[in-house]
């Protein structure tokens, strides 16, 4: 069987479909600085779709011919099975792409994966033969074993033992296509997943739509062996751990870091976690093992707003001390903030922007609160939606009615947050020269 996996690309579009819990992200900030950041991410930040990496390898190992493509003209005419990655903001384009494939690749069975296709299958039905609901690897494993057919809505079971998933064959997707600039400028770069799930259950979190809360961990040995394979086979210089909350299990991560140190991997890597799951001793261990970047969801200065959204807030004192320590140790900290929570005031948003400046992390990302279908927050916000044009759900557009602020004011505050954060002496003096220099390496 000839299988074609599609991460659709089109000039002028900037989708990273593996981000935001596979709803996909589309950076689209306004103004001069917003355009600069958008273009930098579009040109240099390319994350592979992890499910495609696993699906491709599972199917290849089962004897099928598998390819990875971006455009109609690239897809083999004799494809038997075509699987397209969906996104929320790009679903109309993806469905149009699938309809075009129907005309040119008539014998192929066409399907979609991704969180948005899972929660809104009715939007994809007329463009496809099947939609995989949930983590797609389980459905593909059952398909290979002859336990399920890829027809209609395919409810995919989670893979309980992640060690059963193979080390991805990156030759299929193309090693040199991927990068995580400017956090990890060294290439070749590849991602690694060591766990799935998260027990914190923040009401707004899109990751829980596909991964579910129960934690599943790979064995430390299997992770170390995969990294060793990536070094030997692909000569990687950097990697990103794509776990939702990398340091969820402290003891396990210390063991993993010690293994990386003992095996002398000498890699630069980044991860995503929560500040309340960090402490000085753990940070020192992470840095010794090669951590050079970390993504942290700070969200808001207002702890009451955090509690209302279902996220257990960390103390501001602890956040300050952990981030300052990582700044001193040379870790590029990317702090993520949300503005436009349903009951926020303009003063609340201004306080968050001021707090972001006081933390003075290497990078700061300001998104607009967005209720994703399938989350508890979406159910709560249904009556406050400004639109059901899902292409507007990019995290950079206001899509709900606010109690205290007009939507256009939230947009202006978002744009001002970017400008006021990056164009100030405190950031320019500390990070400006190094960040600028990295663009010319």
Question: What would the keywords be for this entry?
Answer:
441 residues, alpha/beta, Rossmann fold, pyruvate-formate lyase- activating enzyme, 2 domains, six-stranded parallel beta sheet, globular
Summarize the structure.
By secondary structure, the chain is of the alpha/beta class. The chain is built from 16 helices and 16 strands.
Structural class: alpha/beta
Question: Largest sheet at a glance?
Answer: 6 strands, parallel
**What's the number of extended β-strand segments?**
16
Could you say which overall geometry the principal axes of the C-alpha atoms support? globular
Radius of gyration: 21 Å
Percent in helix: 25-40%
Question: Which SSEs are present, and which pair or pack?
Answer:
Elements: E1 2-6, H1 31-44, E2 45-46, H2 50-61, E3 65-69, E4 81-85, H3 91-104, E5 109-113, H4 115-119, E6 130-133, H5 136-144, E7 152-155, H6 170-173, E8 179-180, E9 189-192, E10 195-196, H7 207-211, E11 216-217, H8 220-234, E12 238-241, H9 250-262, E13 268-273, H10 280-288, E14 291-299, H11 303-308, H12 316-328, E15 332-339, H13 346-359, E16 363-368, H14 376-381, H15 407-422, H16 425-438
Parallel strand pairs: 1-3, 1-4, 4-5, 5-6, 6-7, 9-12, 12-13, 13-14, 14-15, 15-16
Antiparallel strand pairs: 2-8, 10-11
Helix pairs in contact: 2-5, 8-9, 9-10, 13-15
How would you describe this protein?
This protein starts with a strand and ends with a helix. The chain is globular, with a radius of gyration of 21 Å. With 441 residues, it is an alpha/beta fold. The longest helix is centred in the C-terminal third of the chain and has 16 residues, at 407-422. It has helices at 31-44, 50-61, 91-104, 115-119, 136-144, 170-173, 207-211, 220-234, 250-262, 280-288, 303-308, 316-328, 346-359, 376-381, 407-422, 425-438; strands spanning 2-6, 45-46, 65-69, 81-85, 109-113, 130-133, 152-155, 179-180, 189-192, 195-196, 216-217, 238-241, 268-273, 291-299, 332-339, 363-368. The strands form four sheets. Strands 3-1-4-5-6-7 form a six-stranded parallel beta sheet, with helices on both faces. It folds into two domains: 2-14 and 48-162, Rossmann fold (3-Layer(aba) Sandwich), CATH 3.40.50; 178-439, Alpha-Beta Horseshoe (pyruvate-formate lyase- activating enzyme). Helix 9 (250-262) links the parallel strand 12 (238-241) and strand 13 (268-273). The chain has 16 helices and 16 strands.
